[in-house]
Design a protein that fits this description.
Helix content: 25-40%
Order of helices and strands: HEEEEHEEEEEEHHHHHHHHHHHE
Structural class: alpha+beta
Distance between the termini: 11 Å
Shape: globular
Mean pLDDT: 78
Number of helices: 13
Radius of gyration: 22 Å
């Protein structure tokens, strides 16, 4: 680019990739490059640049446009990320969650390179209050998950443009599941490190609920009795989680039903049988609850999951497969080969269609081929 246009062009390029930002650079930008590519329904991006500062304000957010979640790996250089009242100082190999729906400031004091996964915020299934707890918190490469994710994320970003569409779609499911496990682990650590012991108790109760999801008589009274606390105190614990006991149980049951309906092993089961397996006593109630949360009926979800490139279709050769029915479902045990592919949902809450069949613009606004800017 001509010298007098570099800064404006660089700002526009970063804004098109991550959401509208302002930038400041020393004098004119000597060099910088952004390389992006679709990965199924996600985007990946590599940024190489000389020093700069970038920030996203409430004014820019209010203008509308994309506000994705960005999982960013600093592969070279140094960085300082401020969001949600925290400051993360990053070194080589560290990862950070950046939520572009809220103000954020980033500073790169020397030449750097980052590799990012850019995805709609809804895909990880986290509430806004949970996202706020994990932003600007560095994930270091010497931790268990960091040591797994850093090379994995690097390889995915670097090779995304080489995959055919169906392989990229299948890999995107695994990427989202991996990131979901990472986010949930960060939330567990945040709760466990709380000075009060209530966080640990909530985790124990949630684990108890997961073990007994299939039991129709899983009630607040039964949960409180098993943990030797009063029902009133149980409800108070979940108020701090911005939910109720009943809503938490229903949410977990719906998640398990949605996963099972998308699996090959469940193709011979009726929707009512799947609902009963996870503790729903009324098929009509299950269907209403499913539609209220996911924006479609269980039948519509099962049909969409059976489309080419969906979770019910085989993964590429060498990729991890689905567990056998009844196998233990510990997310920690599934790493690094994440076995459960996520069920991708777009920003409107609808399941995104296959890129190869969707007419017109891509439902998540992704390009059809790798783009270099």
């Amino acid at each position: 680019m001509p010298t007098d246009r570099r800064t404006a062009y660089w700002r526009e390029t970063l804004s098109r990739t991550f959401g509208a930002v302002d930038i400041a650079v020393p004098d004119q930008v000597p060099s910088g490059a952004v390389r992006t590519s679709p990965l199924g329904r996600l985007r990946v991006a590599t940024v190489k640049s000389d020093p700069l500062r970038a920030w996203r304000t409430s004014r820019l957010i209010a203008q509308g446009g994309d506000a994705p979640l960005v999982v960013k790996l600093l592969s070279r250089g140094a960085a300082r990320v401020e969001q949600d009242g925290r400051v993360a100082v990053l070194d080589d190999g560290e990862i950070v969650f950046c939520d572009m729906a809220r103000p954020i400031r980033m500073e790169f004091p020397r030449p750097f390179e980052t590799k990012s996964i850019v995805l709609p915020r809804r895909l990880l299934g986290l509430r806004d209050c949970d996202l706020q707890r994990i932003t600007a918190t560095p994930i270091r490469p010497d931790t268990t998950l960091g040591s797994l994710l850093s090379p994995f994320l690097t390889r995915v970003v670097d090779s995304a443009a080489t995959y055919p569409p169906r392989t990229g779609e299948a890999l995107a499911y695994n990427v989202v599941d991996f990131l979901t496990a990472l986010a949930e682990e960060q939330l567990r650590q945040d709760t466990a490190e709380s000075p009060s012991g209530t966080g640990v108790l909530v985790l124990r109760i949630q684990a108890f609920i997961d073990r007994h999801l299939a039991e129709p008589n899983l009630t607040p009274e039964a949960i409180a009795r098993a943990h030797q606390i009063s029902v009133r105190y149980l409800h108070k614990l979940f108020e701090a989680e911005d939910t109720t006991v009943g809503r938490w149980i229903q949410r977990r049951r719906l998640q398990e039903c949605r996963r099972e309906l998308a699996r090959r092993q469940a193709e011979g089961r009726t929707i009512a049988a799947v609902a009963r397996r996870w503790g729903f006593t009324s098929a009509a109630h299950f269907s209403r609850a499913f539609r209220a949360v996911y924006g479609m009926s269980p039948t519509e979800w099962r049909n969409s999951a059976a489309a080419p490139g969906s979770p019910t279709h085989p993964l590429p050769k060498g990729a991890p497969g689905e567990p056998e029915p009844g196998a233990p479902r510990c997310r920690h045990a599934e790493l690094p080969g994440v076995r459960h592919r996520a069920h991708l949902v777009d920003e409107a809450g609808e399941t995104a269609g296959c890129c190869e069949k969707a007419p017109g613009p891509h439902p998540l606004g992704l390009t059809a081929s790798p783009v270099e800017r």
